[in-house]
């Protein structure tokens, strides 16, 4: 079965199909012709004929006779876009409601789907289309989302090892990939509990100075599938050392180290394992069996977890929230690899987005953290790392901890019987659900209004940034384009500049400008924001971050915030009720409003518009149903807050997820190294200066974005 082809013909490579599930994507068309889609059977006869009448915005189905599925001629409305991508899906399968019929479903862009009954069965061999630049994908594979992800970009720097790799022809199976340095207290239990469950164990020693390798060589006598390699270079530690290595384009990074280790894997699939893990054998057996990891050859990525057990040699304490749970099972056959980001390495998200993400909700390992031998410094601690703060706390109190501590369980031992009773905690389940939402989300075209197919970029929530500005301050817009907007472009999040022109009938898109049909003056700001939300929602975005044009945004921190759980969130909650404001003084075109104070009644809480707020699809759609309430206010942020309040979406303290810093604090915050904030409210003529100050704090600003954007 062909998974995807960049062509207008999809041929079924492995015979014929009794079911069909395909998708087509194309960027433009010519109104001078009438493009078609045909489904062909194994005799070369047409089963289905779809003809598009562009100017009439309609589709004719089976207007020609003698078609194999015997579907009656059907006419349906169908609007195609010539300014953004078109997406068509055709599926055909058995109809459970009628034993002698089948059903074909046709989806064209956002039009209502068409359901047609098929009176004669047939086998499918080929699908053809004469649309220009058309891509056809078979969606019947295990990864039905692959079609939408095929152009995802790498998430970091290339991390090809600096010296020769040992890639070999791959065979079915599962390899446990282990990196070790000075793990003599753990290496025996690690290998003995694991080796017979997997196809191979690849153990890479990174300059151990203890007895780790002596013990490993002894284990090879028993476990013939254990292969040992030596990586001669000590990689940089996680954190500042790694950021410096990436920034200087060093040949020695964690990503290069991980990929060198991966190059010695000879099986289709592998699991990232640590040398201080004890395998929970029952659960790992179940994971391997359930997901067929010894034979599977399709793309996959599986989230697996375990438990961290701390010991001083006599007591065993299990912390309930292990921090090692992540996507650990991957397919080398389908291109899994690591890339370098700022402070560490990560699995390339290009691969993660292209693979169907699943999870296994039983712990498969127990990490042993032995305070007799472990060194936080040796492991590469990060000062602000939650795991290291936790370890230091336990280290300082290990002899005095109570078994009633809510975060710790005292275990009698670490036998398999004890380990099999452990469970994944609710916190880790919640984290895994967030990761699944992220990597199973559909990508979004970053500039959907361009007249050609652009590289697709993954956006976990189809997020767009709206910068509310004015046609008279184009210089300010150019400053933003030169600075923080470039950063957002690199991570695939579009920034739109919103201006008004009341002579238009509807919104107009000009590059990254959206011009809405509203007067471009302050007193029409609520209507301007309303029309901007409507336009961007029409473009398919489902989450909007609204900011003013006197802000500097930190693109590198925005996706680290947990805004996905909030309908309405922002940087600062304003809690005044029944107050009088004159924020509009000196800004209105209507002079009568200049000396007329604004009385705000019954508004309990809202997010200040000058410091940014975000709405998700639920909140946006509710706002768009309340145009009169939005446009009847003088202050757009108050109007939004009032509407959210009426819909039960009023902000809570937990939704104050964006930090904000005013310019008079910038110097102090930057000198303290605190630049984790997303939005900086600054004088407009200081945008470049503040942006440059942020970049100069390179130890904290992710080096990958800094490198890509600024060409250091």
UniProtKB/TrEMBL annotation:
Any GO BP: protein O-linked glycosylation
Domain Glycosyltransferase 2-like positions: 177-289
Localization annotation: Golgi apparatus membrane
GO cellular component, one term: membrane
Single Gene Ontology MF annotation: hexosyltransferase activity
Alphabetical UniProt keywords: Glycosyltransferase, Golgi apparatus, Membrane, Signal-anchor, Transferase, Transmembrane, Transmembrane helix
Membrane topology reported for the UniProt record: Single-pass type II membrane protein
This protein's record includes keyword Transmembrane: yes
Any matching Pfam family: Glycos_transf_2
Predominant cellular place of this UniProt entry's protein: Golgi
Name the record gives this protein: Glycosyltransferase
Species assigned in the record: Methylobacterium terricola
